[in-house]
Amino acid sequence: MLKKSFVAAAAVVMVFGGAGLAQADDVVRVVEGAEVTIPPAAGGYPGRAAAVAECPAGETRTGGGAIVTAGNSYADRYHLTSSAPISGERWWAFATNSDPSNPGTLKAYAICAKVVKNPTLTTP
User: Fold this and answer.
1) Please, are residues 38 and 96 in contact by the beta-carbon 8 Å criterion?
2) What's the predicted TM-score (pTM) here?
3) Cα 46 to Cα 40: distance, rounded to the nearest angstrom
4) pLDDT category, 119, cuts 50, 70, 90?
5) Could you tell me which residues come within 8 angstroms of residue 39 by beta carbon, excluding any fewer than 6 positions away?
6) Which residues are CB-neighbours of 113 under 8 A, at least 6 positions away?
């Protein structure tokens, strides 16, 4: 249940937060990875790109996502083909571009939560 609360809070932060690093009571935040260029298609093969977002030390990845932005072309030529958690506290995304003339961009996001140590309860 706690993990679902973190994801829901982070989703609200993504919608209403500012660019770069959004915060909700300094417990859950969305970390943006670097924007990566998806090159144009060449030689009959689509352009390909991968992007990663990583949570800072002391924080746990609770979710993530990615966004593909089309270049000066039709949006249906740009495809987010994978968006998934990977080793460590990282989120990985992969995209393709079938447009032979215009590059696109890909950016990954990680939803991160601070690790909180709960006290151990004992009964007499």
Assistant:
1) yes
2) 0.72
3) 7
4) low
5) 47, 48, 49, 97, 103
6) 6, 10, 27, 28, 59, 60, 62
